[in-house]
Automatic annotation (TrEMBL):
Belongs to the binding-protein-dependent transport system permease family. HisMQ subfamily. Belongs to the ABC transporter superfamily. It is a multi-pass membrane protein; Peripheral membrane protein. GO terms for molecular function: ATP binding; ATP hydrolysis activity; transmembrane transporter activity. GO terms for cellular component: ATP-binding cassette (ABC) transporter complex. The chain holds residues 262 to 534 of 543 of the full protein. Keywords: ATP-binding, Cell membrane, Membrane, Nucleotide-binding, Transmembrane, Transmembrane helix, Transport. It comes from the Bacteria. This is Amino acid ABC transporter membrane protein, PAAT family /amino acid ABC transporter ATP-binding protein, PAAT family.
């Protein structure tokens, strides 16, 4: 079968597995070191289908590294990451995946990612930023990719800016294009790494509103690293508080945010308010 056929088949298998056990992402005893430094220290996290999980925690606690592992942009030293029931980086014969195989895995496993710094292609229009990867990575025809890109730009309120280059868009608009691009292949999970941290304060609201709609109206499964406590309280089902590369405390968002039990979480939240 062609690569496209394989990837579609993989996806169908996936969807079936997700359905069966209702788990979108499972991270188990994940460990990672940079040089001598422990960045992820036996981290466990399970995210159910349709759930929105906010990752809170001080700078350097491992939020970005965790998200990058779930998208397999980073490798880890030990432990396991499953997305939709599929174990990442794992071949039947136990050998590590090649970079090419990892890229293929990333395209077929259905994880989308939004970065703090948008990471748009600066020489491409808003529409091309969304449509391009659909053709290059997902093998869509130009007509289908353009149609899908228009649909997504409309969903983030940017139909009228489809032909604009990123530098002619505000930060909030750029981040909305980045969200459209991440959603275009219809991911089963969307990861957002401090999606509003690089924005001027007056542009934060429009991006949070798009994310809120994805959570509330579309029931998208999301993991969001954020410092926006009020937003987390409003949108997240669950909050996981990271410290030193593991989860110190997690639970229903409102409960953790209003009544944290761990002193470190209490201190962090009191400073954030
Ligand atoms: P957070 O997103 O919570 O701020 P990160 O995951 O970015 O935390 O970083 C966790 C720790 O890993 C930090 O101490 C950081 O300095 C370190 N780190 C992150 N990326 C790298 C890298 N590429 N090389 C070396 N150290 C890194
Ligand atoms: Mg980070």
């Amino acid at each position: 079968p062609s690569r496209r056929a394989t990837s579609r088949l993989d996806r169908a298998k996936h969807a079936a597995m997700v359905e069966r056990n209702n788990v979108a992402v499972e991270v188990s005893d994940l460990r990672k070191n940079y040089g001598g430094q422990t960045v992820l220290n036996g981290l466990d996290l399970t995210v159910r289908v349709g759930e929105v999980v906010a990752l809170l925690g001080p700078s350097g606690s491992g939020k970005s590294t965790l998200l990058r592992c779930i998208n397999h942009l980073e490798d880890w030293d030990s432990g396991m990451v499953r997305v939709g029931g599929r174990r990442l980086g794992h071949r039947d014969d136990g050998k590590p995946l090649s970079p090419r195989a990892i890229a293929h895995e990333r395209a077929s496993v259905g994880v989308g990612m939004v970065f703090q710094q948008f990471n748009l292609f600066s020489h491409l229009s808003a529409k091309e930023n969304v449509a391009g990867p659909l053709r290059w990575v997902h093998g869509m025809t130009r007509v289908d990719a353009d149609r899908r890109a228009r649909e997504l730009l409309e969903r983030v309120g940017l139909s009228h800016r489809a032909d604009a280059l990123p530098r002619h868009l505000s930060g909030g608009q750029q981040q909305r294009v980045a969200i459209a691009r991440a959603l275009a292949p219809n991911p089963s999970v969307l990861l957002l790494d401090e999606p509003t941290s690089a924005l001027d304060p007056e542009l934060v609201g429009e991006v949070l509103e798009v994310i809120r709609r994805l959570a509330v109206d579309d029931g998208l499964t999301m993991i969001i690293a954020t410092h926006q406590i009020r937003f987390a309280d409003e949108v997240a089902d669950r909050v996981a508080f990271l410290s030193g590369g593991s989860i110190l405390e997690e639970g229903p968002a409102h409960e953790i945010l209003t009544n944290p039990s761990h002193p470190v979480t209490q201190r962090f939240l009191s400073v954030m308010e």
